[in-house]
Amino acid sequence: MHPGVIMRNRLSWITALIIFAGTSLTGCSSSGPTDYYLLSADAKSATVPAPDLALTVGPVYLADYLQRQGMVARSTAVNYQISDHDLWASQLDNDINIVLLKNLQTITGSSQLRPFGVIGVAPQPSLRIKIDRLDSDSQGIARLEGSWQLLSSDHKELRYETFALNTSAESTTESQVNAISQLISELSEAIAKALTTDQS
């Protein structure tokens, strides 16, 4: 083979190797660590005492765009970003359901609140929650929007309410998760007040 051809082949091979190595390094540098988050039950005391309140809490229904492990951030009115590195550590609907239940147990002081799906529990009124929006935006605002529905033990609607809550959050993901937990605590207290008003 002509020396010039050999040299060109070697140069082509070296160039391809350099490109491959550069691509690999870029991929490694952009991957970054993965962090996992859970919501927390922030209610601290029985602010709405209702020890006789019997209720099944759940299920929680999420908007389609929230049914994923990656956390959602809102960039503009029409643009949302799904994180590859900041992930929910469990199914978000289950996590919200657990936090709502714990908050309501603390706020009301009732031991008769049960999570949705428990087998062998006598029929009792149930609370269903639909989450239409749960995110934080570039302005540092966390938002929680949706509706809740109170059903009788025979599944007739007793009450329906919508909610739109927001609070400020710092730029870190942990701060944003804490802000969302705070909003769920506020929602829990609003629901407890509404339920005890219905009972009185």
UniProtKB/TrEMBL annotation:
All residue ranges annotated as the ABC-type transport auxiliary lipoprotein component domain in the record: 37-192
Alphabetical list of SUPFAM superfamilies matching this protein: XCC0632-like
InterPro entries attached to this UniProt entry: ABC_trans_aux
A Pfam family annotated for this UniProt entry: ABC_trans_aux
Name of the protein in its database record: ABC-type transport auxiliary lipoprotein component domain-containing protein
Provenance organism: Corallincola holothuriorum
Taxonomic placement: Bacteria, Pseudomonadati, Pseudomonadota, Gammaproteobacteria, Alteromonadales
